[in-house]
Write a structure and sequence with these properties.
mainly alpha; 72% helix
């Protein structure tokens, strides 16, 4: 039996633009959550996520420029869910579950791209995918905390609650 080895391909214009658009939407969501949440621990986490997405956006822009592809707007699935998060229409638990699902989806897409990528692109997608994985881990922690306290994202006393536990009357 003869096997045919697939030739690795460079990232396409469509793939780069999808990554870019996702990064922009994620940045806006994380930045808005960082600005609006009273819980300093959660707000700081989202602030760091926004910084990660800015760095990813810059890398993707550099990649687009290096490949000479044109940037174009791509419609993402669940754009309305991002809007619901920004408007506060989802519970904190629903928001966290959605963000975990979204980051997992991107992590899987990046892993898939990495398997078929050239040596030139493999490091690029591995770097971006690892960022998604780190976000998932931290979001899973926040999900567990929202299960213990549905108002976790509102807790201005988050540090004290973690150290001392809930106040007893």
């Amino acid at each position: 039996m003869t096997t045919i080895e697939a030739t690795p391909a460079l990232l396409t214009n469509q793939q780069l633009n999808t990554l870019f658009q996702y990064t922009i939407e994620a940045y806006k969501t994380f930045e808005k959550l960082a600005e609006n949440l009273p819980n300093p621990l959660t707000a700081n986490m989202f602030k760091q996520f926004a910084a990660d997405e800015r760095a990813a956006r810059d890398l993707i822009e550099m990649k687009i420029a290096a490949t000479g592809t044109a940037r174009s707007r791509v419609t993402l699935a669940n754009d309305l869910a991002f809007q619901d998060i920004l408007e506060g229409d989802l519970s904190f638990r629903e928001t966290t579950e959605f963000l975990i699902a979204r980051e997992r989806t991107m992590e899987r897409k990046l892993a898939e791209l990495g398997r078929g990528a050239t040596v030139i692109d493999r490091g690029f997608v591995v770097y971006l995918g690892a960022s998604k994985r780190s976000h998932i881990v931290e979001l899973e922690r926040e999900l567990e905390l929202t299960k213990l306290d549905r108002d976790w994202f509102k807790r201005e006393d988050a540090e004290a609650r973690l150290v001392r536990g809930p106040a007893t009357p």
